[in-house]
Amino acid sequence: MAIIALVGNKGGAGKTTLCVNLASALNETAPTVILDADPQRSSLQWRELSDNADAVSVLDAVDDLPSAILTARRTYGHLVIDCPPSVHAEQTAHALERAELALIPVQPSPLDLWATVHIEGRVAAARGRNPDLRAVLVINQMEPRTNLSRLMREALSEMSLPVADTAIRRRMTFRSAVLEGRSVLDLGSRGRAAAVEIRALIKEVLKR
Ligand SMILES: Nc1ncnc2c1ncn2[C@@H]1O[C@H](COP(=O)(O)OP(=O)(O)O)[C@@H](O)[C@H]1O
Ligand SMILES: [Mg+2]
After folding, report:
1. Measured distance CA(116)–CA(128) in Å, rounded
2. CATH number for the domain including 7?
3. Is pTM beyond 0.85 here?
4. Distance 107 CA to ligand 1 centre (A)
């Protein structure tokens, strides 16, 4: 059983994109549910586009995330929580107090990375109640054919939270899959490179 929360302090970082793809990959190993705790309900919208009955389940957890987690734990092997784009939102606090792993997508820019400093404080506060909480930054929308710049490396080295070795590249397939209500794992050869990244990230962050 894994409870993973996609957390961040701004929209557009890739929480929902990673949420639906990571959950779809986990769903291949154990029944998995996405708890959509973001009032924008993007994960729910994504699921409504799908015509695949076997696709990962998505439940509305905006109003009462704690009871949604309690209920879902009885039925599902893995829970993936899509949080609102603010670490000050109550749903984010609930998620951090109950998850074993918080994944924080950030774009590969020092400005975006520095914007995550508020998250470190929230993670530290949540550890008061959830001492085993792990939190990992995930570089998302990495540009192909560019390495991380020197500035970015300096910014990364200043972070107190660890950064996943696996970075997720900016790929059109991540966008088109969402439009089709699918995950990149369902796109065959079109999604293969993206699927490799998603599986590599799971392998890296869920290793114990
Ligand atoms: N790795 C990626 N490659 C290409 N586009 C991406 C990637 N990750 C996110 N996007 C796009 O960036 C935008 C914001 O992503 P989204 O997952 O909605 O972020 P959040 O949920 O944090 O607000 C969306 O248009 C999404 O399709
Ligand atoms: Mg979102």
Report:
1. 20
2. 3.40.50.300
3. yes
4. 10
